[in-house]
Specification:
The complex is a heterodimer of chains A (about 625) and B (about 375).
Chain A lengths: L1 H19 L4 H6 L4 H31 L9 H4 L11 H37 L7 H21 L29 H30 L12 H32 L10 E2 L2 E2 L7 H35 L6 H14 L15 H13 L1 H15 L8 H23 L2 H7 L3 H31 L5 H27 L13 H4 L3 H31 L65 H4 L4 H7 L11
Chain B lengths: L1 H28 L4 H35 L10 H34 L15 H29 L8 E8 L2 E6 L34 E3 L2 E5 L3 E8 L4 E5 L4 E5 L5 E6 L4 H8 L6 E5 L12 E6 L1 H10 L3 H4 L12 H4 L5 H5 L4 H8 L2 H9 L1
The chains are: A mainly alpha (about 625), B alpha+beta (about 375).
Catalytic activity (chain B): 4 Fe(II)-[cytochrome c] + O2 + 8 H(+)(in) = 4 Fe(III)-[cytochrome c] + 2 H2O + 4 H(+)(out)
Function (chain B): Subunits I and II form the functional core of the enzyme complex. Electrons originating in cytochrome c are transferred via heme a and Cu(A) to the binuclear center formed by heme a3 and Cu(B).
Family (chain B): Belongs to the cytochrome c oxidase subunit 2 family.
Chain lengths: ~625, ~375
């Protein structure tokens, strides 16, 4: 009786809520505090940045694949970076490489992926009205927006944007006289990254708080969907590692502008000896990679989390080894912090340290292998529906395996001597972190589009998009291994200066470039599908994929507060697919065991008496807080 | 050309699949309920495509590997290089097996267990034994690889043997400068970055007597064959990285922090020329740490020769002090006598008039430089 009374009270309250806060256009779509709107803002920003980032890569692929090509047709965009003879300027080539890396890693795969889906899915999947702090969440997006503006502006400087590689190692990045890309572009890069880090920290704190504090009744950590686990661990990683990058960036700003010598020592440049002594460029590398390596997992874990969810849903099978998946994600998250120096085997770091980091690095392969095997076993004896999201998830697993395996070679310091900073590395990380995470992002968009926009994306276009992209990415990055094994160093403007690179693989490089352009072209199918479906897509049903998680119990277009009335309680784990005895092949998390006696396992029957307790709980429903 | 054709065929494959699926949808629509059909045919096509992708992918991988393998790991010319090459191919073998098995399982399962109306997936949430197996097996394989790799790494990075020939390699934008310890004392002199100028481009400190016979070269690095060579590496301006592909040598050059790498070159340039049947072959040193505009062309040739001719070549080189006697002014009084040997006779008499000294010495280049000064 009490519950009913409470329910009506809440309903009344909700209505009241909606009445007394009519949002203006600005508050609703621009400076919104609603997690769903902020997620969409992140998504659209991410798509914009990915177009920019991939376009840059196409430009430098033209240079690498067709070194003799006249690039005059790019002059309307690049202006004087194309000289009279139609050649790309070598300084700008480095700027392209640098900005491609920065944009793809931070603005697309960190903000676009984690920002979109952590924001969108955490409250909906844990059963919360919104993020713990809507205001901080809004700030997080607008800091990101500011960072984006600063970075975007820097692309148009006369001296070009930052150009020392996405790792911006000093002294190159610290000395404006060393490089055009170390002038104003570098300053803006650092300012932009500082803003970006603030945005990540605000977001991360929010994700962590929401997962810990705002889970609905019955949603214990052992019932959390793997997506939420992944977002949670990602946020923890970001919260610990991003401040270190901030300190690295601050010290670099000091070295650049205030004459300090944190990273500078014994430098003679531009005809003069600089007064700086005592600094160490290696210090920067340690600080950078202390973020840089966890960053790889910040990018990858959310993709893996979403994939777990999508694969289980569409294979109509429980994810194999739910607890092992969580344990391996925790293992990866922990190990991510103690492997950073494997990026520095040949920097002159003490070789003993190199040995230690080799051991630690190869340990991380074990939880990764467990994850891959678990995905494959989840498919085994499933009843697989190939939705576009499922295709991209399977593609992700393939990339994760193919790219991850070469990590065994690069993590081995003795083998890294030859392969360090060659195209082998480029191939490795583009597959395992770039393409895999991008596929996670795309899978997520296809899967949760109905929840985001209340409409379906076109399946057929999704299939075509998948196959062209999947094939295209393998065609781009697989041959890069070969070029790397032949010893081709990365970040080279041309391969004409050396006998060992001069006359070989020019056809392979052309092929890679063609494949890259082809893959880029295929992405417009997605963009078109995305934009078209927002307005004209087929109306989404309540639960289009017959999925178990809570977001599908919310209205098709969830309003402010996500659920009208009471937030559903949770009684079971999210992976009760194809349970023997059940009449349907899925049982959503909010269905109590007492309603499914036909399919309950013995230990689950024992949980039935606890349901009353779960229902009686009142955890953190913001709409019930007095205010 | 082959690639373009392959690419085109892939595109057409995609388009064909599209047309087929569209056509099938139209045909099916006539008699089937729309919703069921949606899962039906497209699903079968996608499942089949995974199988086709697997087959074509395998063929493509094997073919392209064979095609590209001519250029893999250019012939190693150092013992440690052959050791890491072996480990590389060993690891490569292991991961290739894992690559084929796991990808094949992934795609075959996708095809085999695609949706069938009326079938129910197995409820198979966990199996601790399986989990244990695929935790332990990778762990054992990994331990094996780590152990072999670690031993190689330890040996490669060990202290250089006492009799190693020391050569210094200095990186700057955008070339390498080799500095040799000189034929008389075979010891590198001290340096100081504040002493760098146009002629003394490695900042040799002439107050150290060991530096009197040091000489430099910006075009070639000569090393003796079959003798440990210790490269002392440093950078003048920004990070660089010494990369000698044929020697399997790579080490960053860091301003303010000298680094080192020792190795044995066991094939002379001539031997390699004969072995490869390429009379134009030459060892090269590249830069693999981005250092600015000219990063891609920091080439210096590496010449490996037998010790005899190496010594002869060294003896022919002029110490920097001989080429630029004006640096004699930096030599402390008590060492002037020791340095006299490297200076033209007149130099000691009239140290202030360096122009005359150079002219008498007869070095065309240094005349030009000194008179410019």
């Amino acid at each position: 009786m009490a519950t009913v009374a409470q329910n009506t009270a809440t309903l009344a309250h909700v209505e009241e809520h909606e009445h007394h806060e009519p949002h203006s256009f600005w508050r609703k779509y621009i400076f919104s505090e609603d997690h769903k709107t902020i997620a969409k803002q992140y998504l659209i920003s991410g798509i914009f940045w990915s177009v920019v980032g991939i376009s840059l890569s196409v430009m430098f692929r033209l240079q690498l694949g067709f070194p003799d090509m006249k690039l005059s047709f790019l002059r309307p965009i690049l202006g004087s970076w194309i000289d009279e003879t139609g050649k790309l300027d070598p300084d700008f080539y480095l700027a392209l490489v640098t900005m491609h890396g920065t944009i793809m890693v931070f603005f697309v795969l960190t903000a676009g992926l984690s920002g979109t889906f952590s924001n969108f899915l955490i409250p909906l999947q844990v059963g919360a009205r919104d993020m713990a702090s809507g205001f901080l969440n809004m700030l997080s997006y607008w800091f990101f927006f500011l960072a984006s503006v600063v970075m975007f502006v820097s692309l148009f400087f006369e001296t070009g944007p930052a150009a020392g590689g996405w790792v911006v190692y000093p002294p190159l990045s610290a000395l404006p006289q060393a490089h055009k890309g170390s002038e104003a572009g570098m300053t803006y890069w650092l300012v932009s990254m500082a803003l970006f880090i603030v945005s990540q920290l605000l977001g991360g704190i929010n994700y962590i708080t929401t997962v810990i504090n705002l889970r609905t009744r019955g949603m214990s950590f052992s019932k959390l969907p793997l997506t939420v686990w992944a977002f949670f661990l990602t946020a923890v990683l970001g919260l610990i590692s991003f401040p270190v990058l901030l300190s690295a960036a601050l010290l670099l700003i000091f070295d650049r502008s205030f004459g300090t010598s944190f990273y500078l020592s014994e430098i003679f440049i531009g005809g003069e000896a600089l007064p700086n002594v005592g600094g160490s460029p290696i210090l920067f590398q340690h600080l950078f990679w202390f973020l840089g390596h966890p960053e790889v997992y910040i990018v990858l874990l959310p993709a893996l989390g979403m994939t777990s969810e999508i694969i289980a849903t569409n294979a109509r099978k429980p994810i194999f080894g739910y607890r092992a998946m969580i344990a391996s994600m925790m293992g990866i998250a922990f190990l991510a912090f103690i492997v950073w120096a494997h990026h520095m085997f040949v920097t002159g770091m003490n070789p003993f340290l190199g040995s230690i980091f080799m051991f630690l690095t190869l340990i991380i392969a074990v939880p990764s292998a467990v994850k891959a095997f678990n995905y494959i076993t989840t498919l085994w004896r499933g009843n697989i529906r190939f939705t576009p999201a499922m295709l991209f998830s399977i593609g992700l697993v393939s990339f994760f395996i193919s790219g991850g395996l070469t990590g065994l070679i690069l993590g081995n310091s003795a083998l890294d001597i030859q392969l360090h900073d060659t195209y082998f590395v480029v191939a490795h990380f583009h597959l395992v972190m770039g393409a895999a995470s991008a596929f996670g992002l795309l899978a997520g968009v296809y899967h949760w589009f109905p929840k985001m926009f209340g409409r379906m994306m076109n399946d057929k276009l999704g299939y075509i998009h998948f196959w062209l992209t999947f094939i295209g990415i393998y065609l781009v990055f697989f041959p890069m291994h070969y070029i790397g094994i032949a010893g081709f160093p990365r970040r080279y403007y041309a391969f004409t200066s050396y006998d060992f690179t001069k006359h070989i693989f020019s056809d392979m490089n052309s092929f890679i470039s063609v494949a890259a352009i082809f893959t880029f072209a295929a992405q417009w199918i997605f963009v078109w599908n995305f934009v078209y479906s927002i307005f004209k897509g087929r109306k989404a049903p309540q639960n289009p994929w017959k999925s178990n998680t809570l977001e599908w119990t919310a209205p098709i277009n969830p309003g402010h507060g996500n659920w009208p009335g009471e937030i559903p309680a949770v009684y079971r784990w999210p992976y009760d697919y194809s349970k023997p005895g059940a009449k349907d092949d899925f049982i959503p998390q909010n269905v109590p065991y007492s309603q499914t006696p036909e399919s309950n396992l013995p230990h689950e029957n024992e949980l039935i008496p606890l349901e009353k307790e779960i229902e009686a709980q009142n955890l953190n429903d913001q709409f019930k807080q007095p205010h | 050309m082959v690639y373009i054709i392959a690419l085109l065929s892939v595109i057409f494959l995609g388009l064909a699949a599209l047309v087929v699926s569209r056509m099938a949808a139209v045909v099916k629509n006539v008699n089937g309920p729309v919703d069921e059909e949606r899962i039906g045919l497209s699903n079968r096509i996608n499942g089949a495509l995974f199988l086709i992708f697997l087959v074509f992918g395998l063929v493509g991988v094997v073919w392209s590997f064979a095609h590209a393998s001519n250029y893999f790991l250019p012939e190693a010319s150092s013992p440690h290089g052959r050791r890491t090459d072996f480990l590389f191919w060993l690891s490569m073998g292991i991961i290739t097996v894992a690559f084929f098995i796991t990808n094949a399982l992934l795609f075959v399962f996708s095809f085999r267990y695609q949706y069938r109306p009326g079938r129910k997936a197995s409820y198979y949430p966990e199996n601790h034994k399986l989990e244990l197996i695929w935790t332990v097996i990778p762990a054992i394989v990994m331990a094996l690889l780590v152990f072999t790799g670690w031993r190689a790494w330890r040996d490669i990075m060990s202290e250089a043997p006492a009799d190693a020939q020391v050569v210094e390699l200095v990186g700057k934008q955008f070339n390498w400068i080799a500095r040799y310890p000189g034929v008389d004392d075979n010891k590198l002199g001290a340096y100081n970055y504040k002493l760098i100028d146009n002629n003394n481009d490695t900042g040799i400190d002439f107050s150290d007597p060991a530096s009197f016979d040091d000489f430099t070269s910006t075009t070639e690095l000569h090393i003796p064959v079959n003798k440990p060579v210790l490269l002392k590496i440093r950078a003048r301006d920004v990070l660089h990285s010494v990369f000698i592909p044929h020697m399997r040598v790579k080490m960053d050059a860091v301003p303010g922090m000298p680094t080192r790498f020792w190795f044995i070159a066991d094939k002379t340039t001539d031997q390699m020329r004969n072995e490869l049947g390429n009379q134009d072959f030459g060892y090269e040193i590249a830069c693999t740490e981005v250092c600015g505009r000219g990063h891609f062309s920091m080439r210096i040739r590496l010449i490996v020769e037998d010790e005899e001719s190496w010594k002869k070549w060294c003896a022919e080189q002029k110490p920097l002090l001989t080429s630029y006697p004006e640096y004699a002014s930096r030599i402390p009084e008590n060492l002037k006598a020791k340095a006299a040997k490297y200076l033209p006779a007149v130099e000691t008499a009239t140290p202030s008039d360096s122009t005359t000294a150079s002219t008498q010495q007869g070095g065309g280049v240094s005349v030009a430089t000194t008179s410019l000064r």
